[in-house]
Design a protein that fits this description.
about 475 residues, alpha/beta, Aspartate Aminotransferase, domain 2, 7-stranded mixed β-sheet, 4-stranded mixed β-sheet, about 15% strand, binds pyridoxal-5'-phosphate
Length: about 475
Amino acid sequence: MALTSPSPVDEWAALNGLIEQQERLLVERVPTSAALREQARDVLPGGVASNWQDAPPIAVWLSHGHGAYVVDVDGTEYVDLHAGFGAMLCGHGHPAIVDAVSNQVRRGTHFAQPTAGLIDVASALRSRFGLPKWRFCNSGTEATMEAIHLMRAVTGRSRIIKVEGSYHGHHDHTQVSVYPEAGHIGPPWRPLTVREHGGIPLEVARLVSVVPFGDLDAVERLLLEYPGEIAGMIIEPIMMNIGIIEAPAGYLAGLRALLHRHGAYLAFDEVKTGLSVAPGGATELYGITPDLVCLAKAMGGGLPCGAIGGVDELFDRIADGTYEQVGTYNGNPLTLAASRAMLFDVLTPDAYRHFDRLRSIMVDGARSVLERYGLPGYVQAHGAKGCIVFHDEPLWNYRDFLAYDGRFGHGNWLFQHNGGVFLPPWGKMEQWTLSVQHCDDDVLRFVRNFERFASTLQHHATAS
Ligand SMILES: Cc1ncc(COP(=O)(O)O)c(C=O)c1O
């Protein structure tokens, strides 16, 4: 219950004021980033390497990282819960990664021929995810692209199903209905396929059918409407690009059964969840093994990476050349060295116990603040990942996500940043990522910043 009860109008006015003040403070704190941005704009569109790095009010340029921390170009140190958009479960400069990568650098960084690390890494992924065969690529985008190509090549069908509001990378088949705007999305039971930008041909977009998360009937309707045309479905088993949304009980198992009944496959995009929510990702967490699993991010210890695991029925078609899974840098020895260190030396059973402990400090602390200050919201977390969803009602799908206001999330992000905690930008969409190098003090800083946000907001709302 709230200690005091400002009217909602006062609260929104106070929140707007605080956001303005904190954005100003942030910009004033990072003059070197501002100068570099101006310089960079001359040679880089928007002054960044990826559009999502240019978050409001300004992209903060980093100088280096060490352990659980990153340091910006003005010398400010932050607890790093951004983790390079969820990749750095090892933290920065982890000795196992440094040793593995340094040794490999001396022995050669690239051959485009098989090396022994392939077998170690593929075998470790097999035992974590329960899928017999693995191949490597270089990003999450490549992994999901491979999954879709493979499902199409093996079934001889072109149509795929994806979930509204899910991001699977930036290739043609998945850049539809990622963050579509409310006016263009059609009825909830039958979402329209909306291209993210004009670079995706309409002809390709038309081959992607979109469903609401958690709705088995919507998938069944499509399978009946397009008999013999659907190759498979790609899905994040826990949605992690609209906060965190868990699948309803029975949904994932139901999907697998339904798709198989219609001769189609199920691919889990575990680019964010894999290795982070449990040693064997959501596949292990829920005990549902799909036909394909896509991995990237945490696997590579900070090096560009990607992997795809699958059942023999699909991967035998790679072996016989039905689908040619190729790439100059596939199985790159440097990436394999870092991945091997991640799988064998960093992400040990102790590491997951460490995540559990730190996560419970964050979850309990954030829940207590929400309750004591009467803020709308709840906490959702698994393994190394978590977030505060600033909404009264549980979110079930993209439409729920779209309907609530992102200002609380942005306000919290600003207070965290100005208080020395680097969360990923785009507060409403993203989540924190823990590393094995974080300690209790680091995560308590997050809880203290959140309390400062809540108390300042309350103070301003009641004073106005
Ligand atoms: C669920 C999911 N799939 C795929 C991708 C694409 O991965 P990458 O950026 O490595 O291409 C991302 C990236 O954030 C993601 O969150």
